[in-house]
Amino acid sequence: MKFRNFIGKIKEINDRYREPRIEMSGAVRVSLMALRLYLFVLVGLMVYKFVLVVTG
Q1: Rounded Cα–Cα distance for residues 2 and 54 (Å)
Q2: Contacts of 32 (CB under 8 A, 6+ apart)
Q3: How far apart are CA 27 and CA 31, in angstroms?
Q4: pTM (2 decimals)?
Q5: Which of 7, 13, 28, 30 could connect to 24 by a Cys-Cys bridge, CB 3.0–4.6 Å?
Q6: What is 1-56 written as a DSSP string?
């Protein structure tokens, strides 16, 4: 029962913040995308290093 309440609360929060409240310029959108890609690259490198350490 608590799990369903937790999932319901997450869905409620996601619905509330689905639309951004502020306007973003093109430069801001590009910067955020670059940061997102940078984050994925860093996480990928960490996973790669972890696999190397564990396997060998």
Answers
A1: 37
A2: 24
A3: 6
A4: 0.59
A5: 28
A6: -HHHHHHHHHHHHHHHTSS-SS---HHHHHHHHHHHHHHHHHHHHHHHHHHHHHH-
Half-sphere exposure of 54 (CA within 13 A, CB side): 6
Written as six digits, the tokens of 48 are 């790669």
Q: In whole angstroms, what separates CA 38 from the centre of its chain?
A: 12
Q: Which of 21, 50, 2 is nearest to 10 (CA)?
A: 2
Question: Residue 1: its pLDDT value, please?
Answer: 66
At 19-53, the pLDDT tens digits run: 878 888 999 999 999 999 999 999 999 999 999 99
Rounded CA separation 19/28 (Å): 16
